[in-house]
Write a structure and sequence with these properties.
Elements lengths: L1 E4 L5 H12 L4 E4 L15 E3 L5 E2 L2 H8 L10 H21 L6 H19 L11 H15 L1 H8 L3 H11 L2 H10 L37 H13 L21 E7 L10 H6 L1 H13 L3 E8 L4 H10 L3 H18 L6 E4 L3 H16 L3 E11 L4 E2 L5 E4 L10 E2 L16 E5 L7 E10 L1 H15 L5 H10 L7 E2 L1 E2 L16 E2 L1 H17 L3 H4 L6 E9 L3 H15 L8 E5 L2 E3 L2 E2 L10 H6 L4 H10 L7 E3 L1 H31 L10 H22 L3 H22 L1 H4 L4 H25 L4 H11 L37 H10 L4 H7 L8 H7 L2 H9 L3 H28 L5 H21 L3 H29 L5 H21 L3 H24 L1
Helix pairs in contact: 1-2, 1-5, 1-8, 3-4, 3-5, 4-7, 5-6, 9-23, 12-13, 14-17, 14-19, 15-19, 16-19, 17-19, 21-22, 22-24, 22-26, 23-24, 24-26, 26-27, 30-32, 31-32, 32-34, 33-34, 34-36, 35-36
């Protein structure tokens, strides 16, 4: 047997210790991750038993070498090893591989060591009074922390139980021999372990439960149920549902209507948007189809409202053109993510107009619509009422006075604003000061609908996610008030009421109605889903981020209750918290984070993105995206756990039984395994039904771990070489594992549909054969005896740490900064660069004095300034054909901008580029004035020059009175002096 390893790889110690304890000889071979030493994932150390059998999991290899090490009767040793591989080892590796570990990494290591120390406080060894595989794995991982003086003093001084245990094991002959053969050093540098890199430990969700917890074995009742389902479960599946091109409710079936919040069409969706609505809903819809529910999943782009008009103005397009452009972007992104909508539509359709107007008129006829006069800002220059996002001004809140606040919210203090409260408001489009003018608007009388709404919420909120309940209850702490349903815009659904022809519906009112109009476009019979007959069982599930909850728990339900025509109301509302990006927040407006189009450009398969986003789905609290953790999840969970089990199981079947599933003769141990798997399947269904998609995924991966443990325990590669009884037992083990692979393929289809499609090909089955019974979720025989499988192939590939580091650097900062620094082809305007320059630096400098944190951003800033200077020079050169009057106005405007910047911050890096621009403008003005002076000198008179001096003198006096900034008025003084010189010269000449 050979062990392929790189230098100073502490995981290799596990294999050498196990081999010594078992009295087996192994040969060490130097290798690197680039060496093609075997077919499959390239991880080190690798144990090569023979040409057909290799182990790339160090824990699995150690158990193969010395299988009797697991002396626990309930699989706790396997749990501890899994915990060591997914929690302890990444924490140790992260600290060892970083010159200056962060406080978060140190805390993660500390919390893991606390767990080990507690176990050893009452036992001689990890699991009791006898040595186990868990001791060998954990000792090898913490070895450098206790035999490197500096590391021991820094990280482990307080853990006396670990110190006692580590010293005792180190004195054993088997471990001393292993250390001599290993020939490594506790002083490092340490080689990468299993290509996992150094993960962002604090945000890692545990792959298994707490290793301290006891796992009870299955009861006799569970085992009997497992036997029954194994023998009869396949026949209990209901007949598969015929897939119709147009999906309508079916009698006698559970009809599931699924919506995800309609993504707004003014930008590219980022990963937080994707997991918050469309991906979560897609996972659930695929689960429902797996259960044979009649399922309709619809979504589409939300296209009306102020944000669309704003984006259209920014890009110089019409609102319709903006919607067409971004609809295609959204559609392409979701197709790449394999989001399986039954229909993906949009709200700017005639169906949307017809249904919205019809519902509004019914609401009005029922007495729930009134009118009020509302003060609004009117820009007379643009001849339009200004929606919130079209107004800017000074924040009215004391202590803030930010002079660039929006009409709905101040970005500096974060407080909400009524546009008419802004100090010195200005039109965002033309800069003119608007006037306040009353405008008549229609309101929905939410106060009249409140009693019925509260009663409905009380009877349904128990089926909602915690985030949905919390947001809804916050809204209901105060009485509901009438809410405006119309506004003075052009882009929207017209209001079908005389006197309101020039108004449209507020987007909050018509956007949820988009679910109905999109269903109409999909089926041509939307009322069959949204106003079903009593004999049809239709249940509505809705997915969204928590910021959309008020519209789906208050406004939209109140509208449907007021219409009173039997519309389906949401029964299950699954809202998420927010997904953050690395150490900051995703932001569509600032372009921070990884966006849907970016994910496609990484080369990482969409299934990996789907799996990772589901595994960090912010279900009960905010969570964070991490590039390192993405690699860890892929390499540890998908590759080493799931991929390893599926590939080994099917490869044994292909190589040992010519691809035919062998006869299975279960023993008591097999039925115990089935009972444990049934626990996980039941928990999977329970969590799925409650919208806990992340927790459901954990239970699927636990089935894969149970399968790996079963294979290690049974060792079919040994049994197949033994007696007839052994061969029967080995065939059963392989058969059970192949059936487990089929079960995993079914349960994972909602999460990684592309990989499961490949796995079905390897299993030789179609999607209709792999279904589950949600009323009796269990492990059943999907593959009949003698079933021929296809060719086994690896499902996933390793993500290299250096590639992830490059991606982290590539997608750092904002999209504008990336375009500037990376030299992207997309044009960057002066305005965009000005927005990017300095903003992040100011935030970082305000948050910390640590130069190491903000210096890289300063370097980025300098690069951006170079581009800014070039862009400004282009703008200045293009304006050289202007008049003296044009340049004088430009100088005045730029001077005002400089004064405001200097008043808002002392950071010279912020306003110096604007000063440079001002000086350049003044140079151009002086040059143009000199040219004009030279051309007119011959015809100048004393009277004309005296008049010019008088005008210029007044200008200088006013400037000096308005500012002490010499750079503003000195050029004007120079012009005045030049005029006086010319007057003196002309007087002498005369």
């Amino acid at each position: 047997m050979k062990i392929y390893t790189n230098e100073n790889n502490t995981a290799t110690l596990k294999l050498l210790i196990a081999a010594n304890l078992a009295g087996k000889k192994v040969e060490l071979k130097n290798a690197s991750f680039g060496d093609d030493v075997f077919a499959g994932p390239r991880t080190l150390p690798l144990l090569e038993v023979d040409e057909e059998l290799s182990f790339f999991s160090s824990n699995a290899a150690a158990e193969y070498l010395f299988p009797v090490l697991d002396l626990s009767g309930n699989g706790q040793c396997h749990q501890m090893q899994e915990w060591e591989a997914t929690r302890l080892q990444p924490a140790v590796s992260a600290v060892l591989s970083t010159k200056s570990p962060s406080s978060e990494l140190k805390q993660a290591l500390h919390s893991n060591l606390v767990t080990v120390d507690k176990l050893l406080a009452t036992h001689k060894y990890i699991l009791g009074d006898k040595l186990s595989a868990a001791d060998i794995s954990i000792w090898s991982t913490v070895y450098p922390l206790y035999f490197n003086a500096d590391l021991k003093e820094q990280y482990t001084r307080e853990f006396t139980n670990i110190a006692r245990w580590s010293q005792e094991l180190a004195s054993a002959k088997a471990i001393q021999d292993a250390l001599n053969q290993w020939n490594g050093s506790p002083n490092g540098p340490f080689a990468p372990l299993c290509a996992l890199g150094a993960p962002q430990i604090p945000s890692l969700a545990a792959a298994v439960g707490s290793p301290v917890e006891e796992v009870t074995g299955p009861s006799p009742e569970e085992i009997e149920t497992a036997k029954d389902n194994w023998l009869n479960g396949l026949g209990r599946l209901q007949p598969p549902l015929k897939q119709e091109k147009i999906v309508l409710p079916v009698k006698g079936r559970k009809n599931v209507l699924i919506t995800s919040a309609l993504p707004y069409v003014n930008n590219v969706p980022h990963l937080g948007n994707i997991i918050g609505c469309v991906l979560s809903a897609d996972i659930f819809a695929r689960y429902c189809r797996l259960c044979d529910h009649n399922t309709l999943y619809i979504c589409g782009t939300d296209e009306y409202g102020t944000a669309t008009e704003t984006k259209a103005i920014e890009e110089g397009l019409t609102p319709k053109q903006i919607c067409d452009k971004y609809f295609e972007i959204h559609n392409t992104v979701y197709r790449w993510f394999n989001i399986g909508f039954d229909y993906f539509g949009r709200t700017s359709t005639k169906e949307q107009t017809e249904i919205s107007q019809k519902m509004f008129l019914k609401l009005r006829d029922n007495g729930f619509v009134g009118s009020q006069s509302v003060d609004q800002l009117l820009c007379e220059n643009c001849n339009r009422f200004l929606a919130d996002r079209f107004v800017e001004g000074t924040c009215p809140h004391p202590g803030c006075q930010y002079d660039n606040a929006r009409g709905d919210q101040c970005d500096r203090c974060g407080k909400l604003i009524n546009a008419v409260e802004l100090v010195a408001p200005r039109c965002k489009l033309c800069g003119h000061a608007p006037t306040v003018l009353a405008s008549e608007q229609l309101f929905i009388q939410l106060d009249q609908l409140e009693p019925s709404l509260r009663s409905w919420i009380a009877s349904h909120e128990g089926l909602w996610s915690p985030a949905a309940r919390a947001v809804c209850r916050a809204w209901l702490r105060e009485p509901l008030r009438p809410r405006a349903v119309t506004r003075d815009l052009k882009w929207g659904v017209p209001v079908p009421v005389p006197g309101y022809e020039n108004k449209v519906f507020y987007v909050w009112f018509d956007a949820p109605i988009g679910y109905l109009s999109i269903t109409q476009n999909a089926t041509k019979q939307y009322e069959k889903w949204w106003k079903p007959d009593k004999e049809f069982d239709v249940t509505l599930y809705q997915f969204m981020a928590k910021d959309n909850v008020p519209f789906h728990t208050i406004m939209f339900p109140a509208t449907l209750i007021g219409i009173n025509e039997g519309h389906v109301l949401v029964k299950h509302l699954f809202a998420t918290e927010y997904l953050n990006y690395e150490e900051g927040k995703f932001s569509k407006s600032r372009g921070v984070g990884v966006f849907g189009t970016d994910a496609q450009d990484t080369g990482i398969p969409s299934d990996v993105w789907r799996f990772y986003l589901a595994s960090i789905r912010p279900e009960t609290s905010d969570s964070s995206f991490s590039w390192t953790e993405l690699g860890t999840r892929n390499n540890s969970e998908l590759l080493n756990n799931l991929g390893n089990f599926c590939h080994r199981s099917l490869s044994f079947c292909a190589n040992s039984f010519k691809g035919k599933v062998p006869e299975i003769k279960p023993t008591d141990a097999d039925y115990e395994l089935m009972a444990l798997i049934n626990r996980e399947v039941a928990a999977y269904v329970q969590n799925m039904e409650k919208g806990r998609l992340r927790d459901a995924l954990k239970h699927v991966m636990s089935i894969s771990r149970l399968g790996n443990q079963h294979m290690q325990s049974e060792q079919p590669w040994v049994l197949l070489k033994g007696s007839e009884e052994d061969r029967t037992r080995g065939a059963t083990a392989i058969g059970v594992c192949c059936q487990a692979v089929a079960l995993l393929c079914a349960l994972l289809t909602p999460y990684v549909p592309g990989a499961c499609r490949k796995l079905r090909e390897q299993l030789g089955v179609d999607a209709g054969q792999l279904r589950i019974n949600p009323l009796n979720p269990s492990f059943i025989q999907y593959l009949p005896r003698g079933h021929v499988i296809g060719k086994p192939e690896p499902l996933f590939t390793k993500l290299e740490p250096d590639m992830l580091d490059k991606l982290r650097a590539k997608f750092a900062g904002t999209q504008t900064e990336r375009a500037a620094v990376n030299g992207d082809a997309a044009p960057v305007s002066v305005a965009q660069l000005e927005a990017a320059v300095g903003d992040k630096v100011r935030q970082l400098k305000a948050s910390t004095k640590d130069k190491a944190v903000w210096q890289p951003e300063v370097d980025k800033l300098l690069a951006l300034k170079k581009q800014l200077a070039a862009a400004q020079a282009t703008c200045l050169n293009s304006s050289s054909g202007g008049t003296v009057g044009d340049l004088e106005k430009a100088v005045a405007d730029q001077g005002e901008k400089v004064r405001k910047l200097k008043a808002s911050t002392k950071d010279k890096a912020v306003w110096q580029p604007e000063v440079t621009k001002l000086l350049d403008l003044k140079k151009q003005l002086a040059s143009l004035q000199a040219q004009g002076n030279a051309a007119s000198a011959a015809s100048e008179s004393v009277a004309e020059l005296e008049k010019a001096i008088s005008v210029q003198g007044d200008k200088v006096r006013k400037l000096k009175a308005s500012t002490k900034d010499k750079s503003v008025w000195q050029p004007e003084v120079n012009v005045l002096l030049d005029l006086k010189k010319r007057l003196a010269g002309l007087q002498v000449k005369n």
